[in-house]
Known about the structure:
Strand content: 15-25%
Number of helices: 10
Amino acid sequence: MKYFEEIRDITKSIPTTIVDFSLNRKRTSPPTQASSNFITNKEQGDWAENLIFRAINETSKNYVVVKYGKSDDLIAGDERFDQFYNEFQDELDTIGKRPDLLVFRKADYDTSLGYDISKINHTNIDNYVKKAIAGLEIRSSAFLIEKYEAEMQKRFEIHLEKALELKEQIISNYSKILSNPKKSAYLDILNNLNKNNISALSFRRPTWRATQELKKLSSLFSELKSSIEIIQKRDYLSITPKDEDLRVVFKWIKEFNVPHYYFQVFFGKAYGISFKNILSLITEPDKEGEYYEISPDIKNQNKTTIKINTRKTEQIAYKVTEPEHNSVRREMGRGRLLFYVKFEKGTAYLNIENLKSLLNIEDF
């Protein structure tokens, strides 16, 4: 069975309420103005792409990585930006979204085209692209992942300890009140509360006020509920494709039949997951919460976003050194100035065995 056919079969099991692959893509209009924050994020994304590009090309004996994704230094407000943007929209409607990087066996690498085919019209390289063994979509995140993980673990331990202390305090001092048949459900909740089930526990805050003792008991339950809610907040960093991303990637795979992967580069480490695995996960509702979350992203106009737990993905770089950075001044039309951050250098130290496993290759 072809790779595309496997992907197509999985999409048939995905609820249309999550991703409807039958919908036509909505064409968007060019933005009229860029912000300093937007350019900084773009620069960080370009840095992450170059990081993986260099890491694989400098390490692999049998494979070559080529820049492929549509990109340009133009931004909204530049003279030729609208033309670039509309050409990009045309290509999305024709072949879907190009992944940022393509991986070729060295035997299939075309030296005459070089390491960057991102500006070549797709009609001139379609047959070449089909020889790739992988397409890589590179994402970046401005988190020190080890510090984030340590903080989340500390948060969990603090609020777990607090919740267990409150449990014992309430049982010790208020068991008589809670033995009342109308309140006994709360005693059952407390007796069953432990480290293993606290992440799934839920109850309604009582609002008892008839006596001072009941008021105090209600206050303790409110504290307990607050700690449990903090424990139950998402505590992992994620790889975050939007539903519309999945549809344009699906279109590209249909055109080229090349396996597709998402890589997420953090300051410290990098992780990867296959497009096939992303689709498979969202067909399994029992894994929601632990493996992934589906929610509107307020940073992306509330678009439906799949947030994949990086702990459930492959670590493809066990260490990423931070880049050098400097401020850049850019003059726009009418004398408008933008200042943004440019990133350079940095190194990704690849976990070769994990990378081979992810890309389903035996050599490297």
